[in-house]
Amino acid sequence: MIPTCIRAPRSIQGSTDDVTRQTRSIVQIYTDWANHYLERARSRRRAGTSGGGLARDCADGLLLADVLEGVTGQKVPRAHRKPRNPQQMVG
Predict the structure, then answer these.
(1) Are 89 and 80 in contact (CB under 8 A)?
(2) Residues 6 or more apart from 26 whose CB is under 8 A from it?
(3) How far apart are CA 55 and CA 47, in angstroms?
(4) SUPFAM superfamilies per the record (predicted)?
(5) Cys bridge to 66: 43, 50, 83, 85, which one at CB 3.0-4.6 A?
(6) What contacts 12, CB < 8 A, 6 or more positions away?
(7) Could you give the CA distance from residue 55 to residue 48 in angstroms, rounded to a whole number?
(8) Could you write out the DSSP letters of every residue in 2-32?
(9) What is the spatial distance between Cα 79 and Cα 68, in angstroms, rounded to a whole number?
(10) Phi and psi for 78 in degrees, rounded to 5?
């Protein structure tokens, strides 16, 4: 399923297949962008590799922290890489 935030605007004319193809292209651009910064941060993980695609990967806070570290060049504080309890998973 394509997330609502990256669906093609209504102004795009064309068949449903064209819109779906354009939307997949947009998702691929964001996936490539995220993977570029994950490589830059020397992360072992890659975006878009899970079964749910980019939307499921964006729900993973640690993956987002890795992308932010790649973009900013700074460590994300309080990112628990191996949480030991439920509070560390949230915090």
Answers:
(1) yes
(2) 6, 8
(3) 9
(4) Calponin-homology domain, CH-domain
(5) 43
(6) 18, 19, 22
(7) 8
(8) --GGGSPPTT--S-HHHHHHHHHHHHHHHHH
(9) 11
(10) 65, 25
C-beta of residue 31 within 8 angstroms of C-beta of residue 54 = yes
- H-only helix segments in 41-80: 54-58, 61-72
Backbone angles phi, psi at 20, to 5 degrees: -60, -40
CA atoms within 13 Å, Cβ hemisphere of 68: 12
Q: How confident is the model at residue 2 (pLDDT cuts 50, 70, 90)?
A: low
pLDDT in tens, 17-72: 777 888 888 888 888 988 888 888 888 888 877 767 777 777 777 888 888 888 88
d(Cα 34, Cα 88) in Å, to the nearest integer?
25
Q: Residue 44 is which amino acid?
A: R
